[in-house]
Amino acid sequence: MTALNGYVTVGHGPRKVIALSGWFGSSADWQTIAPMLDVDAFTYAFFDYRGYGASLERDGAFTFAEAASDVLALADHLDWPRFSLVGHSMGGMAMQRVLLAAPERIERMAGISAVPACGSRMDEARLAGFSATINDVSKRAAIIAFSTGNRLTPRWSTHLANESMRLSRREAFAGYLPEWATRDFSAELAGSAAAQVPVKLFIGEHDPTLTADLMNRTWLTWYEHATLETLANAGHYAMYEIPVALATKLEDWLKQTT
C-alpha cells in the first residue's frame, strides 16, 4: 500500500477541495476558517507536505514535483477523480505543479497571496536572508510581521513563527525554500491545457510582496480565465487576519460552475 501524506478533512459535501499551505504554515493554518466553511456543499482535505504537520516524520526530497505526486496520491485514496485546489503563499506555486501533472483533474484554483509559477526570483542576498530563518525563530517572526504590513501585534507574529518551528522539520523547511524562491516553470504553462483552468487570486491590501502588479504580470498573463481580488484589512495571512471574509469569498468562487 502506498504511504500517504498526512491531511485533515472537513465537511461531507459533493464539491471536493485540496488546500496547500505556505512555507511557514501547515494544515493547521486552515483551522482558522474551518468553522465558517459550508460542510454540506464541500469536502476539504487540508494537505501537509512531507516534513510538515501531520507529515512531520515523512522523509522525502522536499520538492514541488514530489508534493504534486503526493497530492494526486491523496486524491486517488479519497476517490476524487476531479477536485479544486487552494494554495496559500508557496502553496500557490505547489498547486500549479499539481495542475501541470494532471490538468484534466482540476476543476478550478484559488490562490491566497499565491507565489506565481516563476517563483519569487530571489537574488543571492535575499535568498540568504530567508535562509537565515531556518534556525532562527526571531527572523521568522520578523518576516511574518513584514509580510502583514508591520501593523499587527508582535505576539501574533512570534506565535506563528513558533508554530512554524514546531510543525516543520528544518531539512524540509530548507528544502522547500529554493523551490519557491528560485525555480521557474512558467514556460510550461504557455499554450497548455493547464492554462485554461479557472483561477481566482486573492491578495491582501497590506501584503508588500504579493501585489496586484505582480499578479497582473504573472498569473493573469499566463491563465486565460484568471481574476484578481484585493482583500481589505489583510496582509499575507488572510486566513488569520480576516477568516470570515476569506471563507465567504473563497466558497463563493469555488461554488461557481463557469
UniProtKB/TrEMBL annotation:
InterPro entries: AB_hydrolase_1, AB_hydrolase_fold, AB_hydrolase_sf. SUPFAM superfamilies: alpha/beta-Hydrolases. Residues 17-241 form the AB hydrolase-1 domain. Gene3D superfamilies: alpha/beta hydrolase. Pfam families: Abhydrolase_1 (PF00561). GO terms for molecular function: hydrolase activity. The keyword Hydrolase applies. It comes from the Bacteria. Keywords: Hydrolase. PANTHER family: AB HYDROLASE SUPERFAMILY PROTEIN YCLE, MONOACYLGLYCEROL LIPASE. This is Alpha/beta hydrolase. It comes from Paraburkholderia edwinii.
